[in-house]
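Sequence only, no structure available. Ideas?
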Amino acid sequence: MTAKKVQEYLILAALPGLMLCVVPVEGMDFRLSWHLAFLWLGCFLFTAWLSSWWLRAMCLVSLVAAASVPPVITAYLTLGTIMAGLAVIEKISGMEDERVLSWIQIAACAGLLWMGLQQHAGILPEGRFIGPFNPDAAGVFLALCLPAFFSRKTWPFIGIILAAIILTKTSTGFAAAIAACAVAAFVAPLSRKSKVAALAAIVILAGLFVWKVDPIAKTIGCDRWIAWSHGTRAAIHAPAGYGLGSWETVFPLMASGDARLGQYFRQAHNEYIQYTFEAGWPAVVLMATFIISAALIVVTGAISPPIAGGMAALAVSCAGWHTFHVAPLALIGCAWLGLFLKNAQKGAYNEQGYIIHAAMDKN
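Reply:
I predicted one. Tokens follow.
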């Protein structure tokens, strides 16, 4: 089926879909029905514009999660944020890889410069590097930027980025960085000895971090773990989800009876749990399908080390941080998704690690 036919079917599907919006919102009150009509039509048109099946599915699942609850501003804002992210992914997928990687490198250097200035000025909260973020977000940001340096020209920067992540003392950021390095080493066209040496260095570094920081104890012992438990149990009993943007308003009510949960979680600090809580079981199926397919593509060696590492860092960071709820982190994440979706369709890379679809297209 051609892309043009897909766009036609999606637009035509909006015609009967709009009929669902012409219903009383409260009793015989029809005042908000045009809001829902605009929501459905706009999302169908946007979905038709997207080129990836995964992006289209993401948009439609989010649309249903937003329209399944009474019209509230949080649902509209969340849906608009998701559509903005999908638009970024779509545009990134049409850009040259090296250009995108270069700008991610610039972002990392800017963050490091900011951290250095704070160190010089002596304004480090809790003695940790933060840059323009808090320490946890700073570590995750650097971890997401790290794979952009996985090339022969820029590899010396890897040690600097890793050192900065360690100085943030961020468990999620360090875990994401380790995952990125391990996956990139697995995919890279290195000799067996080089791969063994790289993996050994990664294991030693991870061991030192666990010894000094003890991230497992910190995670299990903090309110975040309790919040995840409450959120998971609530999501299991709501197959259709609680609606987009509901975590901020519904979750505090569910967890209010737990005296251990003293902190108010505006975000779940776990994108998988929060999206499942809000969008229901269809979100689980969508995320699981994408993650499994992406892992298979990485294992087959069809993706270059930087992109494979970027996807690994993104996947791990989303399990311990609200990556897509912090704009700078979300943009880096969308960049990796855009590069991955484009190159997953194009094919393999050469021994230097550069994507070769450009040469293939010319032929």
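The chain is about 70% helix and 0% strand.
Hope that gets you unstuck.
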